[in-house]
Structures are given as structure tokens and as C-alpha cells.
Amino acid sequence: MELFKPMGLTNEGENQTVGETEKVKCLIIGSGPAGYTAAIYAARANLDPVLYTGLQMGGQLTTTTVVENYPGYPDGITGPEMMEHFKGQAERLGTDVRIGMATAADFSGGDLIVTIDGNRKIKAGSVIIATGATAKYLGIEAETKYAGMGVSACATCDGFFYRKKDVAVVGGGDTAAEEATYLAGLCNKVYMIVRRNVLRASKAMQERVMKTPNIEILWEHQVTDLFGENGVEGAVLVKKKGTPDEETVKINIHGFFLAIGHTPNSDIFSDFVETDQAGYIKTIPGSTKTNVPGVFAAGDIQDPHYRQAVTAAGSGCMAALDAERYLSDLKK
């Protein structure tokens, strides 16, 4: 079976534009560790990958200052610099990296069509979705002001920088409990700032928190502001907001960790690709295959558990290999 000629590709197998629709072998959506790694492997497999960066080129890692837990960088590296390395390697191997955002998708009828920036249609032989997940924030101005200067949405990524210091974790679910217990092993003291008077975390996680001596739960507290000269030095909280017992308190901290969840960036694909209740794309265990033939998912978009650069990169490799095998099988 000939795959590429009917899709408008040239005899040499290169990508081609026919009319208003561009036709490519491998379309990668997203430019974090998963997307760029997929591009590197796809390029080496002669899939002529086209990668669209999305609005945040480099993904969430570009909001991180120093990365010390990615192999191969013994002295550490900034997140933006590391993503530039990924991008440069992908381009050197032949990836067509483009600035643009996927705004719609249509995987019905056997064709894999993605619309970029609302007007450019691409028909792909295979699609690798690596659009990631966006951390939820409280929405206070200080979160932006202190981004990379004490505010983080990943304790595993940034907790190391706050060893023997006091930090706070916002949230009362399993993620918050896990982040707090992880940080408790590094930090002097961990405040858990919980909006309600109970934890939503599982019983097992609640027990872990309660048994950790340097975790203090601040029940019925909400964060209204952060303060500090050259980074976070403390937080302003309101206790029992909206009640007669309302009280404003301040705590001194150096690290402020958000653990109130992530939103997977899967909306435009969810009509076709199966997702879980939270919106994470489901993949066949042991692979990056989705329920749609030719569509693969890599990185945080399909990983609600680890959310690390190295695991995202690994799944990007898997997605490219899965896409190459899929396209190869169609030729047979």
C-alpha cells in the first residue's frame, strides 16, 4: 500500500503543499522536552517532521531557572537554555520548527487534519501530540512577579534549592500531600496552606502528612499576596475569610509551591482522542498510541503522575518510534 503519494507527497517522500492544505509525514505539536525529543528521533528516521511550538516555546521548562536533575548537565543549566539546546539539535537533524499554535483538529474519516493559528490546515500521515499540561495558579499578581524567584509548581523540580529553609505548599489533595512530604525531607519546615478544614487527599497520604513532624497544616487559610525584596520572603494569608473570625496573618518562607492541579492542554483533540476525566490523553499501556490510528501522545499531556523533563523526553522518543513503525506498516 502506498501511503504518501495519495496524500500529496512527492516521489522523493518530501512534504508538499497542495492548494491550501499542506501535507506532511509527521506533525509534532508542542515544543517541550517531549516534542523536541520526538522531533529528533523522527528526523533521524527520515520522517521530515514539522513541529509547531505553541504559544510557550520550550514549554513549562522555560519558566524554571536552574535545572539540576536532567542527566548530562553536571553543573546544571537554565530551563530556557536547555530548551534551546533541544531545539538546535532537532533543527540540525532536519526538523522544520515553526512558531504557531494548533487551534483545531479533525481526526474523523481517516484523515488527520490539524489547523494552525485558525487558518492553516495540515494533513499529516502521523501526529504526535506533546502539548503538555498547564499548572493551575491562584491568580494573584505576586505569582507572576516572583516566577522563578520562589514560586514553583513542581517540588520535585525545584525543592532542592530550598534545602533547610521554610517553604509553603498550597493545596489539600494527594498532589499537595505528596509535594509537602517530599519537601519535608529537604526543608526545615513545610506549611500546608489548606482552604478548607479537611484534606481531600487519600487516607494514606493524610497519615503520611500527619506523621511528618516538620509539616504544619494551616487550616482554612487562603493566600492573598507574597512579599520579598529579591525573591519570596513570605506570604500574606487570610484565615477563615468571609467569617466574623477572619484574620490576616503572615508567614516567613523562601519557597512557595502550587499544588492545586494541572490542566492538560487537550481540548482541541478531545472530540476524537480518548481522555480521562481530568483531560489527560489515554495511551495504550507500553506505548504512546491513542485510540486514533496514527495519533500518538507524549509528555505531560498523557502523564498526570511524573511530569518530569526526563520522563517527557523518554515518551517523546517512544512516540517517534511508534509513529515510524506505524507509517512503515502502512507501506507494506
Taking pLDDT < 50 over at least 5 consecutive residues as the criterion, the unreliable ranges are 1-13
Count structural domains: 2
SSE series: EEHEEEHEEEEEHEHEHEHEEEEEEEH
First and last CA, distance: 6 Å
User: CATH superfamily name of the largest domain?
Assistant: FAD/NAD(P)-binding domain
Using the CA coordinates, give the radius of gyration: 22 Å
Q: How many separate helices?
A: 7
What composes the largest sheet? 8 strands, mixed
CATH fold group of the largest domain: FAD/NAD(P)-binding domain
Average pLDDT score: 91
CATH architecture of the largest domain: 3-Layer(bba) Sandwich
Structural class: alpha/beta
Question: What is the helical fraction, as a range of percent?
Answer: 10-25%
Overall strand count: 20
Q: What is the CATH top level name of the largest domain?
A: Alpha Beta
Q: Shape, please?
A: elongated
Question: β content, as a range?
Answer: 25-35%
